[in-house]
């Protein structure tokens, strides 16, 4: 019985390792070259996983695309939160979002937001991709809303900060420069000062 359990555990670990290798290859290719231009043969070559095994784990390209996006969503939101959590002041935590974006924009191979890209490619034909992209953006908005609430500033600031962040992502991708993150941070700082001034004036 113990041997059976151990063998199952080994198989499970091997399956997870193979799945992650496939997802690593898929992410590099899908994000770097575009989803529609990358076939399963390219994933097979990049991951060194036989095509039969690849299809056993991901029965279709659509299922692989969805898994890639879900994993990217979880990692992106986690990495952002971990960076922001290193700042103490509620206001600084909001501004830290744009500092994190600046670091991300500087990464080699940055091609903008993977969810905007995937929605642009497949949003009109794949409801699953559209739903994942929308869920990611909604989760990001909720995260910013929580930061705004903690900073004790008006809730209307949330949507303005979202627009600044989303605009920075798109502009940085097209321009090839990380500077839009700094410009967005400057605008966010002005909005925060205005919001704080309005609160003081109201008191």
Provide structural commentary.
The chain is mainly alpha-helical and 203 residues long. Helices cover 80% and strands 0% of the residues. It has helices at residues 2-33, 40-47, 51-57, 61-84, 90-105, 114-122, 127-150, 157-175, 179-202. The longest helix has 32 residues, at 2-33. The chain is elongated. The model has no long low-confidence stretch (mean pLDDT 92).
Low-confidence stretches: none
Strand content: under 5%
Secondary-structure class: mainly alpha
Number of strands: 0
Distance between the termini: 71 Å
Number of helical regions: 9
Compute the gyration radius: what is it? 20 Å
Q: What is the H/E string?
A: HHHHHHHHH
Give the quaternary arrangement of the chains: single chain
Outline the biggest β-sheet: none
Describe the secondary-structure layout.
Blueprint: H1 2-33, H2 40-47, H3 51-57, H4 61-84, H5 90-105, H6 114-122, H7 127-150, H8 157-175, H9 179-202
